[in-house]
Amino acid sequence: MLKQLYRAALLTTAAACFVFTSMASFSVNAKGVYQSGPDFFAEVFAQQQAESKVLWLTPEIRSQAAAIVGHPVRGLRLRYHQSDNKTAWILEEIGKEMPITIGVVVEDDVIQQVKILAYRESRGGEVRYPAYTAQYKGAALQEDYQLNRNIDGITGATLSMWAVNKVAALALYYHAAVNQSSATHQP
Amino acid sequence: MLWHRRLGLSTFVVLIFLAISGFALNHSPGLKLNQINLSSNWLLDWYGFEVPLAEGFQVDGKWFYQDGNKALLVDGHNAASCTAPLIAVAQTTDGFFALCSNGLNLLNRDAQLIEQFGAIDGLPPNTQAVTVLDNKIYLTFDSTTIDSTNIDAVIMEFNAHSLELKPAQIAPQTLKDMRQAAMPLPESLQKTLKEQSSGPSISLETLILDLHSGRFFGQFGVLFIDLIGLLVCILSITGLMGWIKRR
Fold first, then answer.
1. With an 8 Å Cβ cutoff, is A42 touching chain B?
2. Taking a contact as any Cβ pair under 8 Å apart, which residues of chain B between 122 and 141 contact chain A?
3. Which site among A10, A87, A99, B88 is 20 to 30 Å from A106 CA-CA?
4. Coil, helix or strand for B151?
5. What are the φ/ψ torsions at residue B98 (nearest 5 degrees)?
6. Which residues in chain A have Cβ-Cβ distances shorter than 8 Å to B71?
7. Beta strands in A84-163 (DSSP E)
């Protein structure tokens, strides 16, 4: 009887250890760099000839960008790749404590792709799943600089989701700013 | 009886102190003594805390330093995000280049962030230095991170406009001689940095406990409190003896 009890206790402990370590390794796996910037651009413009360009953030652009993300944006210039009406951006936004690096592709003022390139927080990494990011495809910017569609959230990843929403809206705004400035520069 | 009185008078102040500090320690959670932090310099010195002097780089009359948290400060102003350590700072005629462990910050002449060149943009890991020679920017890398067969440090020339790296033919020693070492910050910046960041501190509870037990004054303090304890024993015995005698 005692032997049986001992065996059961041993088995339960082993099972608990296994569950615990697999959970721990899962949360560690959520962190990481999934794709580098150059690789992202190369993948996005595999079929097209894209140019690397720079958008200088004028005071106007900065103030509007700050309104979209809710805090002042850092840096005076921003790099993007463009081919015709398609632009690709790599932007960072803090989820809870750490920045999430997000690649956004915009074509004709509509989001074509959102991809999480690097996630550094221990929780909320579910936003990187294609099933989630696919929701952004086709989203455009409303007049109030919000996305024109509702994005279904993920439990436990609310802050990360907000960060992705902000970055998606910001990329759409930057895309519009690029098109506007190129339109005014044309004779 | 005369000795009893003399002993009583000589321990009177210490006994009152021990009673009050003991009372305070007994009610420490209620009085929230463990939440009151003391960080005066002499106290930290007394406890043997080494408060390291913050270091930075002085370039073109500006001080570049890391705040111990996640910011690059330039003369007290938060310029960019920077994970410690701040490895090196260099300047060209266009601006400044501050290398942190999370990336290279490109700043203009007014030390405003232009952009950051990090690992995600193609900066190899373990970048060891940024050096400017003849207005050209060179980055030095630990060779093993790029090419495991190469033993020497790898040096690349960095284009601040296109953010491209290309191999440079330059002797590592030449760049090494050009590099500026980190220096302790001037006192005024040290002071503001200390006020802003949360350095080491000692809770009031610890201080009272150490005073109560005598540990605050080291081994002799403990012996002194032992002696007081012994005197209290003697006092109570002599007091009892005096009381019995009178009856």
1. no
2. 122
3. A99
4. coil
5. -115, 120
6. none
7. 86-94, 99-107, 110-119
Rounded Cα distance between B238 and A81, Å, is 93
Domain check: are B67 and B174 in the same one? yes
CA B169 distance to own-chain centroid = 40
pLDDT tens by residue, B143-175:
665 555 555 568 889 998 888 888 888 877 778
Domain total of chain B: 2
Assign residue A140 a region: left if phi > 0, alpha if psi is -120 to 50, beta otherwise?
Answer: beta
Are residues B192 and B205 part of one domain? no
Q: Are strands B62-66 and B71-74 parallel, antiparallel or unpaired?
A: antiparallel
The answer to whether residues B103 and B175 belong to one domain is: yes
DSSP string, A27-70: HHHT-EE-S-HHHHHHHHTSSS--EEEEEE--HHHHHHHHHHHT
A116: number of Cβ within 10 Å: 23
Do the Cβ atoms of B162 and A118 come within 8 Å?
Answer: no
**Burial (CB count within 10 angstroms: exposed 0-12, middle 13-18, buried 19+), residue B204:** middle
What residues make up the domain containing B92? 55-196
Considering only alpha carbons, which residue of chain B is nearest residue A58? B114
Q: Give kind and range of the element (H or E) at residue B129.
A: strand B127-133
Contact A90 B122 (CB under 8 A): no
Residues B63 and B14 in one domain: no
pLDDT tens across B11-58, in order? 999 999 999 999 999 998 888 888 888 877 788 888 887 666 678 899
User: Out of B108, B112, B120, whose CB is closest to A37?
Assistant: B120
pLDDT along chain A (187 residues), means of 10: 65 65 52 85 88 91 94 91 92 89 94 93 88 93 91 88 94 92 58
A75 touches B at CB < 8 Å: yes
